[in-house]
Each structure stands twice: as C-alpha cells, then as structure tokens.
Amino acid sequence: QTPIERKPDWIKTRLKTGPQYRELTRLVKSEGLHTVCQEAGCPNIYECWEDREATFLIGGDQCTRRCDFCQIDTGRPAALDRDEPRRVAESVASMGLKYATVTGVARDDLEDGGAWLYAETVRQIHAAVDGCGVELLIPDFNADPAQLSEVFGSRPEVLAHNVETVPRIFKRIRPGFRYERSLDVITRARADGLVTKSNLILGMGETREEVSQALRDLHDAGCELITITQYLRPSPRHHPVERWVKPEEFVELSAEAESIGFAGVMSGPLVRSSYRAGRLYQQAVAA
Ligand code: SF4
Ligand code: SF4
Fold it and tell me: Whose CA is nearest to atom 3 of ligand 1?
C-alpha cells in the first residue's frame, strides 16, 4: 500500500444503531432480502435505515460497461429476469420503506437497454407501497428517446443520472459513457417534469476548478439535486485514489453548489449518491 491508499481519519465511521435500523436488520435477515446498503457494506446504513430508506440493485451482477471506479463486474449478463421488479417491490413493502433508491447495471445486451426493467420496478413499488418515494438512478440508455421515455413515464419521484467525473478525464474513467450525453439525459428528464439529480466523485484526478465547472454544467443542464463524494478504490485493479478531499473542502463545495442554484446538496467524504436520498428529495419539493 502506498501512503495515498491509507484512509485518513475522517473516512472512519461512527457506529450508532437505532430502533428502526435494528428492526430493518431483523426483517432483512428473516425474509432473506438483498439490499445494496448491506451487501456493499455502506457506512451510512445506520443513518439511512433509521429513516427507513434503502437501495436496491436490479439487472443482475454483470454490467455491459466498464467504469474504472466501479466494483460491479463487467461481463455478459444473465437473461432478463422479468420477475425481479415484483420481488424488489415486495422487499420495499416488507421493509416498510419510506423511500427506496433503485439502481442497476447497464444492459446494452437487451434490445430496450433494460428500459422496461427499470420502469417496471418503479411501477411495481408505487403499486405495492402507498406513499413510498422512488429514486431511480439510471445508466444513460444511450440517450435513446424511446427508452428514456419509457423510463421517465414510470414517474419516479427523482430521476438520477450520475456524471461522476469531469470532462477532461471522463473518457478514461467512464469509457462507455459521454459527458455531454449524460448531461443531455438530465436535461430531458427535467423537460419531462421530473426532479433530477446527479453525483460527482472526487479524488480521481480532477482539479478544483474542474469540479466547479462541472457543477455549473450540471445546473445549466437542469440538474436540481447534487451529491459530492470521495472516491474509494474498490481494488488494486481499479483507478487509484489521487487525493483525499478534506472535510472543509466538501463544506465549501456544498456552499458553492447552493450558490450556483442547486435545490439540495449532500457533500462529504462518506456521502454516497443515495445517502439520505429521501431527505434531499424533500428539499427539492420544498424549494
Ligand atoms: Fe458500474 Fe454503472 Fe459503470 Fe456499470 S455502468 S460499470 S454498474 S458505474
Ligand atoms: Fe443504503 Fe445508499 Fe444509504 Fe448507503 S447511502 S445506506 S447504500 S441508501
């Protein structure tokens, strides 16, 4: 391990469990449910679960794209599982969630890019759980109008699409995506009347000025909510950590994003794009 790989103190988490967290943990175990929160060992689980918010992954465990920060395997996905939306909705219902984030792999192997799968999961959750907000974090569907329209038509409370990094290093970090195309997906979602959200991961080689520019680009594209996070390297095969952003800089960036005009911001070393997502959505609604 090079010194840069050593995590600074502010990356360590506070362990504080509450009654909702304990109840959800019991339920998930007894019902054999799967959440990203537990399976990715997310440090925020005590906070999110206390608010009855959790994240689910759809589309399988093999992605057709290869992003240099992502721990999901690249490979040939299994056949489309048409029962998955129902099972996710059932999990959301049995956990009694108030807000569910649904994300998944890119399915370029499918004719519709997985649009039906993403849309159907939102529809099933809305049908199964009265009042549960759904945040749908999507790949770009190659900005295909028909696929996006199917996805947007499922009316998630928040439509999230993450640019993750800045234009200069974008191609190296996300070879299957394009910066402008990702901005375009956000613009279209907003034009369709959805609340929009994105994420920037810091520590992959971007400069401070590039982060400011990306924030302005996102806001200009119609993005309303933003999360700003620290990159953690999943394994030595992934992109190295170029820097550990200090907590003060995250605070500055939060103020900067607010002054640019974002309706809600979550910025911090341990923030994930789905961190306290329901709360952030409420800020957008109130704005
Ligand atoms: Fe990971 Fe999403 Fe990139 Fe696939 S498209 S490698 S799931 S970040
Ligand atoms: Fe789950 Fe996301 Fe919260 Fe982590 S940040 S606990 S993955 S909802």
Answer: 67
- Among 15, 33, 45, the mutation site with the greatest number of ligand 2 atoms within 8 A of its Cβ is 45
Report all structural domains of the chain as residue ranges with CATH numbers, in order of start. 34-286 (3.20.20.70)
Q: Report d(CA 167, CA 165) in Å as an integer.
A: 7
Residue 47 pLDDT exceeds 70: yes
Residue 81 to residues 73, 87, 151: CA-CA distances in angstroms?
A: 18, 10, 17
Distance (Å, whole) CA 162 – CA 226: 9
Of the candidates 173, 155, 153, 154, which has an alpha carbon nearest to the alpha carbon of residue 163? Answer: 173
Q: What is the pTM of this model?
A: 0.95
Which ipTM value was assigned to this complex?
0.98
Sign of CA dihedral 162, 141, 44, 194: positive
Atom 1 of ligand 2, residue of closest alpha carbon: 37
